[in-house]
Each structure stands twice: as structure tokens, then as C-alpha cells.
Amino acid sequence: MSQRYLRSGIFLAPFHDLVENPTLALQRDMELLEHLDRLNYSEAWIGEHHSSGFEIIASPEMFIAAAAERTRHIRLGTGVVSLPYHNPFILADRMVQLDHMTRGRAMFGVGPGALVQDAYRIGIDAGDQRRRMNESLDVLVKLLQGETVNEQTDWYHLRDARLQLPCYTRPIMEMAVAASRSPAGALAAGRHGIGMLSIGGTSPDAMKHHANNWGLYEETARANGHTPDRNKWRLVTLFHVAETREKARENVKHGIGPFRDYFSNISTFPIVPPDAGDPYEFLTKSGSACIGTPDDAIAYIERLLEGSGGFGGILELAHNWADWNETKRSYELMARYVHPHFQGSRELRRASYDYAGAHHDVFFSQQAGAVHAEIDKLAAKKRAAAAE
């Protein structure tokens, strides 16, 4: 079941092997966004992480501000800001500034914080993260809508808090909440009628959780006076494509090992469990990733659409499984051959081509007749001139 129009994008944590030069790694992340902008990707979401050494962007807002000056079309979202780490008034003010600086290309993705290590380092208990996310999100939405907030909790105190600027995007900038297997993100997104970013894998088992979360979203949205819209649902998954399956498998040998090690030993997300063994075999056989050709990617997305009931955006979890050139080539193949299948950009061309082919004999005959008429006309003119 192909859905029209399916937005394309990436979710850039980012992931960088410990042997890499971090300065050059950040530069390459920026170059990736420039590359995707040229390839007509719809959007990119940039993460916030502060520890563990593998995901090295600490301020997505800062990265987005720089990327906005180097790109023209691609939309840029925080993917995501960890709400428990920030005072909601100051965060709202920064995001509104970013909305103006990008002329509406910025998006505001939020979550409780993916790495427990980050929360631990600033004295936040993991059990408080989702509560704090909900408290902050309720305030953020009010502030972005221009309301004045007076509220005190155990971690912030707001007095007559009101933003000094409205959002550039009206009525407010686009927002989304990260949702994994916990229902917290879906409930928070549904309560405010904003978008949902489903992360945490796309195996058949993971898709059941995502579909259940969307059901919670719909139920909660309606209970709060919002109309559920599947176009606001984005699904994060894993791809690497090449001209052949064999080449794709060979390409990912470059960096899939460190990726597996990070998710097995450090990250609390269950994308690759500790007992996974060969990461290629696990990811492909479990249905958690597509490593193959553009046709394989189309079939994979079709399965996700079928299993979920439909969503509005497919986000590739950015990684460095392949070297830089083959990574860029994978995104190019996705843009050239996969995205058009889900965006309806080739159908009119095909219809025009097929119509011309079906009437080829007629048009050929008409063209030949017109040419012969001109030849006969010239011959008659020459005969008339010779007779004078």
C-alpha cells in the first residue's frame, strides 16, 4: 500500500566510531545535510547527547543554525531536545529564535532523554525523566501559543513567563515527540495533537509496539479535542542500499561492527541486542534494517506501511556502516529510485510516455505526411520555376 505523499528524511544522532577525529566527524555531518538538501530530502532531525562518546552533537539548535546557512530547502528538526535537561522558558525562547533564523524551516522535536548516562551526570533519576518531559511540554506549548505561565515544580519556577517573540511559523512551529516502546511519548503527543517520531527499530515486533502507540495517540488526541493525522507520524528505520545486494553487504562491513558494539554495550535502545552475533545477519533477518538494492528498500517501506496502517514520513537513521563515498551513494540511490515511488513524482511522466507510445503509429504517420507535403511543395515550386 503506497502512500502519497511520503516525506523522506534522516534522523542524525549522530553515530561516530571512537577512532574518528571528532572535528572532522562533525564536519562530515554538516556535509551530509548539504548533500541531502541537493538530493531533495524533505527533512533532517538532529539529536542531543552529552555522554558515552559515540553520539557527539550536544546542541542540535546550534547545529541547525549552522546547517540552515548551508542549505536551501531541507527542513531541520531537533531530534530530539531532552526536555528534563532544560528550563522550558529558556528553551522555548531559543527555539522561537531558531524558527525566525531559519524562516520556518526549524522543527521542534522533544523527548525525555535517550541516554540514562546523560541524566545521571546532572543528577536526574531515570524514573523522573518522563514526568519532567510532560511537565515541560505542557508549558512549552502554552508559551509557544503566546500564553503567560506561572508554575512551580521541583525543578523549575516560572513567574509571569511569556515569550518576547511569537513563532515565525503560525500558529506555532511544528512539534513532535519521540516515542519508543514506552507509551509516554504517544500519550504526550496525542494530548497536544502534535507529531510523533517512532524510534527503537522496525522489526515486526517493534512495529506492533509502534502501531499500538499510534492507537494510543489517536485515542488521546480525540479525547483532547484534536483530529489525529497520520501525516504527523514519522517512522525511523535503517537502510543501506547499493546497486546489488552483494555490494551493499560488502559496503557495510566498513562500520557496522562498531555500531553493533555501541548498541550492545552502551546504548539502552534495543536495536541490536548483546547476543546478536553477526550484525548484518541479525539486522536483515530480524527485519530491523534493509541492506540491499533500491527495489529491496521499496518493498521494505511497503511492509512498514502495511504493518503500521500508514505514516507521513520515513526517516533513515543515519550511520556510518559504509565509507563516506558509499554512504553518499546510498542516499543518492534512495533519492533517485525509492522516494519517487512513494511521492507520486513519476506517474505523470509514465502516463505521458505511455500515451505517446500508444499513438506512435498515428503520430509517425502524421509526421511523415507533413514532411512529404513539404517535399512535394518544394518540388512543385522548382518545377514551376523551371517552366518560366
Structure overview:
The strands form two sheets. The chain has an eight-stranded parallel β-barrel with strand order 1-2-3-5-8-9-10-12, surrounded by nine helices. A two-stranded antiparallel ribbon has the order 6-7. It is globular and about 110 Å long. The longest helix is centred in the C-terminal third of the chain and has 28 residues. The model has no long low-confidence stretch (mean pLDDT 96). α6 links the parallel β8 and β9. It has two domains: 339 residues, TIM Barrel, CATH 3.20.20.30; 37 residues. With 388 residues, it is an alpha/beta fold.
How are the SSEs ordered, and which strands pair?
Elements: E1 7-12, H1 22-38, E2 43-46, H2 60-70, E3 75-78, E4 81-82, H3 88-101, E5 106-111, H4 116-121, H5 129-144, E6 149-152, E7 157-161, E8 175-179, H6 184-192, E9 195-198, H7 204-223, E10 233-241, H8 245-252, H9 256-265, H10 279-285, E11 289-292, H11 294-308, E12 313-317, H12 324-343, H13 347-358, H14 360-387
Parallel strand pairs: 1-2, 1-12, 2-3, 3-5, 4-5, 5-8, 8-9, 9-10, 10-11, 10-12
Antiparallel strand pairs: 6-7
Q: Summary?
A:
This protein has 388 residues and is α/β, with parallel strands linked by helices. It has helices at residues 22-38, 60-70, 88-101, 116-121, 129-144, 184-192, 204-223, 245-252, 256-265, 279-285, 294-308, 324-343, 347-358, 360-387; strands at residues 7-12, 43-46, 75-78, 81-82, 106-111, 149-152, 157-161, 175-179, 195-198, 233-241, 289-292, 313-317.
